[in-house]
Amino acid sequence: MLADVLLKIASEGQHAKEPYRPRPSLAGPERCIRSLVYFANNTPSRPFPGRAIMVFDDGNWHQELIADWIRKSAYALHSEQMKIETPVGPGHIDGILTDLLQIDRLLEIKSVNHFSYERWWKGQYPLDYFTQVGLYLHGLHAIQPDITEAILLCKNKNTSSLMEFHLAYNQDEDLLVLTQIVRSDGQRTEPNFTMEGVCTDAVQKFAAVRIHVLDKTLPDRPYPVGTDYPCGYCAWAETCWEGYEDEFDLLTQDAQLDEEIATTCGYLKEVQMHKGEMEKEEKRLKEIVREYMVSHDYRSGKAGEYVITREMRHSTSWDESAMSLETILAAKQIKPYEILTIRKPRQKGVKDASRAAD
After folding, report:
1. Which of 163, 290, 298, 358 has the most other CB atoms within 10 Å of its CB?
2. Which CATH number fits domain 3-208: 2.60.40, 3.20.16, 3.90.320, 3.30.70?
3. pLDDT in tens, 73-83
């Protein structure tokens, strides 16, 4: 009743996109520059699906809720949504946090899904958000030079766990340093990670966008065909990849490649050979364990320090013979993707020579 209605309401009620302008939220290295050129050119884009609109709205509410919890603590949160002039243009900070020692830090609040949350903890840091923080700290320097540190506070939307990145910005060297990561479950680490030229790179990125707009050109696609994220969520994905198969047909064939690539291919084939052998061994050992469990009618059990469990699961498939042709055509999606094949052709004459030897 509601599940099939609310997302449609969200989709139909979305506001038009704001006009393009350089801004901190678009400045990071992970942001696709090709999509920014489409944006700057006013290239027509597809509207966001209703689910995406709800995700954005959820993020705003998570931010408000976290800010409200902070206000109930001994920390002071102020200057919320204050406008800051940055090297790439104006932006609005989430706020400034004052601790019990009266030290001020920039505060940025983000909400993320569980997979991104864990990925960030393992070292695949949110560089776009780091860049945004660096730009804000650069802009704050003109107002309050004493503010050189920031906390990027991230909420796991699935579990409500919190993780904060402690960041420090060196204005003279344009250097952003990640000094510490703290999680709400007590885990913490002090990584050795820096972003050099964080603001300079952001300025150069928007300058490159402007050059492409003036020259009426497009930058190369930074992601391979078939990439799910971010391409699958980009408003210009269809425009970007339209005609790619024709481009692919025009690529050079039978080229003479560098010797360095030949060495890499040799090493890759060696790795694949060992991988195949290990996969066969893994399959053999699993079969031994499975046959043991089956022969004894065991569903689960403990062997030394190991627990072995047999589980029943189901896969879903579609029987096209039970579907109308119209349904099949409407549901089927054909998306291109690339396959990289490396093989070692048989040398001419080798086979014939072996026969002659026999």
Report:
1. 163
2. 3.90.320
3. 999 999 999 99
